[in-house]
Amino acid sequence: MSDLRAAVLALLELDGVRAAVEQAREACTELRWHEALRRRIPEAAAESRVRGARANAALDGAELPLDIVRDLVRGACPWPEHPDPVDEVVRGAAQATAETEHVRGLLLRSPAQALARLHVAAASGMLAADQVGRPRQGSETSREYVDLGMPPAADDVATRLAGVAELIGMAGDVPVAVIASLVHAEIAVVRPFVRGNGLVARALERTIVIAGGLDPTGVAVPEAGWLAGGGTAYLGALTAYASGTPNGVGLWLRQAAAALSAGARRAREWPTQCGWAG
């Protein structure tokens, strides 16, 4: 057993973590076998991506009504020719969330490539072309999530990303909900890119939940679960994780599992909301 795997498994013994992770697994299992949703998997997965994109952007402070995001995603209305900062983030979230569907088969065998593709989707239009799809270099830094403190220097990013890749490789051998939440937190805290780190972190969590088999249909909306808890609670949980203390890491893992459970429960309401129940 590798040292990292042993350390990750030990996290399950932190207060309340194992129970929260089990609740998330049960919520995703119930969602997978929901009779009305099983008849509508393509539509439900598409709805999940729309709602996930909206919540992902909102967690970065860019909020648009769900109906507008839906119309933008499906092409019923064009993206603004000269986007404002909110439009840029929403478009990045929509593109990254859509890309999760394409990298799900790539993630476990080539996590670095999947990560690069998610960043290209999220940050195209936000950054100079030579900064998109690659980690920070030289003196580059990130001004995102300043409440977490300064990010690691660019020279340290490769080592941290190697740890992320090792974590991704454990999905399934270690509970997928744990791996997805740890990878999410690592990307947000390390901030390996100049911009777009939060969008990528949450898209990567979604991808791991799908690719790891916890929610293979891609119907759960963990992003919406995080948003339901509020942006302040989300940032507070990331800050707790960044502290590196057992209490802080445990708090993050419990809240991540709760967000996934909430995202699965919300999806079970769609048959009634969307008229799919019949």
Describe the structure.
Helix content is 65%, strand content 0%. The chain has helices at residues 3-11, 17-32, 35-38, 41-59, 66-74, 85-103, 111-123, 154-169, 176-190, 197-211, 222-229, 231-243, 246-267, 270-273. It is mostly helical and 278 residues long. The mean pLDDT is 93. The longest helix is centred in the last third of the chain and has 22 residues, at 246-267. It has one domain (3-273): Fido-like domain (Fic-like fold), CATH 1.10.3290.10.
Write the layout of secondary structure elements.
Layout: H1 3-11, H2 17-32, H3 35-38, H4 41-59, H5 66-74, H6 85-103, H7 111-123, H8 154-169, H9 176-190, H10 197-211, H11 222-229, H12 231-243, H13 246-267, H14 270-273
Helix pairs in contact: 2-13, 4-5, 4-6, 4-11, 6-7, 6-10, 7-10, 8-9, 9-10, 9-13, 11-12, 11-13, 12-13
User: How would you classify the helix and strand content by structural class?
Assistant: mainly alpha
Average pLDDT: 93
| CATH architecture name | Orthogonal Bundle
CATH topology: Fic-like fold
In which range does the helix fraction lie? 55-70%
> How many beta strands in the DSSP annotation?
0
Into which percentage range does the β-strand content fall?
A: under 5%
Q: What's the Cα radius of gyration?
A: 18 Å
Low-confidence segments, given as residue ranges, are: none
What is the CATH superfamily classification? Fido-like domain
For the sheet with most strands, the description reads: none
**Distance between the ends:** 49 Å
The number of distinct helices, counting runs of at least 4 residues, comes to 14
Q: Oligomeric form of this entry?
A: single chain
Shape: globular
Number of domains as seen in the coordinates: 1
SSE run: HHHHHHHHHHHHHH
Q: Can you tell me the CATH class?
A: Mainly Alpha
